[in-house]
Amino acid sequence: MASTTLPTPSLNPDSSSDFNIAIIGAGIGGLALAIGLSHLSIPFTIYESAPAFSAVGAGVGLGPNALHAMDLIDSRFRKRYMEIATGNLKPEKRHVMMEAMRMETGLGEGEGWWGNGGWPKGYTGFERTGAHRKDLLDIMTSFIRKEAVFFNKRVSNMWQANNTVTLEFEDGDVVQHAAVVGCDGVKGFSRRIVLGERHPEHVEPKYTGKYVYRAILPMKDAKRILGDLATDAKMYMSKGANISTYPISKGKQMNIVAFRRDEGMWTGIESTKEVAREEMVKDFTAINLDPRLMELLDCAKPTRWGIFNHPTTPTYYSSLICLLGDVAHASSPHQGAGAGQGLEDSLILYRVLGRLCHTTSSSVLSTPSPERLRRIEAAFRAYDEVRRPRAQEQVRTAEETGELYQLRDKHGREVRLEDAVRTLNGRFRWIWEGDLDSDVRRAEGRFDELVKGLGSRDEAEGSARP
């Protein structure tokens, strides 16, 4: 097999360059990184294993931090997203993330907390927004040159040598890149390359002990079943299970996700399992499920989606290969923050790579060399130091939040619904109010420090030569 260095756009209109960043995976994180790199005219190539952009996951929710990341990545991004985003349909619920209900018959109506189970309370910094994943991807792909995306390209091997990274694909193609950013999902191949030698125990994702059933229902059918409860985001809570519902597609559809605790181990290599419809229904019969929720559940396909995460990731990079999004910090979905964390990753990484290109001569960028390698490593290290603590904290706290939805605290003790709501009321602001402008400055400043250290090292090595 012949190795190929892809032709790339030039960083400098007057010269050619083989400086090209490979992005493995065309999900939200990979596409957001590509949008940022496009603004800076930094060459990239996206390799996606699927035959087309995927819509797996259906509903996507984005908080204030994610919307601000959009603004900082591309001034058009947030505006276009808001054109397709759906919030709670009742104006008075505009700033409510979720409203608690019981799963049992009656949904808790008449209890003391009824009508006061929403969170956050008295906080206008949050505005509920959600969209169909496909609609969001359509917006993102409109900002990217189509010729920079290659489908049906599944990576089978990846290695670093001679100051470059070589990718081998299942179809036999081989290409070289200056650096690689793995955005290939929770079970992505790039994670094994980055962690396998130094931290093999942290390569595989961990089963969280929960799985879900999913459905998307026309809003007219949802209203027929739930009445006014269908128009706004609800979290139906019980011991060992919870169901999340919220409007998407400009209120034309409702997204339904039914969670079930699983005390066993997940078997098999796939993340999904087909089960008999009777088995799906049996998962919830012991709860005395409200008939309205049972009718919603009847609309779901009897497929269990296992929830996996990466609770520990000791580093997000290894030399010229970097991790972004779920492959770095896959999380359970309980805080609605996974997509937002991927957008934050993309913002910080594209800005620090921009700093790299702005402060490095075109002659160094265009030619594989130890100097270029060290500068790319400095960029990845700066990204890692800024993003990893915050992203991993989101993974940890998401697990605690998921326990609250099933009326347990982080120690496994039962809690009352009203106490769970009180705790949930204060759990999210640290995510929503993250200072991304400061994070950008810290990452760029840290890169400058690391590069300055490289200069001192190069001078010392030069003076030591005979």
TrEMBL record:
Residues 149-381 form the FAD-binding domain. GO terms for molecular function: FAD binding; oxidoreductase activity. Signal peptide: none annotated. Keywords: FAD, Flavoprotein, Membrane, Oxidoreductase, Transmembrane, Transmembrane helix. GO terms for biological process: secondary metabolite biosynthetic process. It holds the Pfam family FAD_binding_3. The chain crosses the membrane at residues 21-46, 52-73. This is FAD/NAD(P)-binding domain-containing protein. It comes from Massarina eburnea CBS 473.64. The lineage of its organism: Eukaryota, Fungi, Dikarya, Ascomycota, Pezizomycotina.
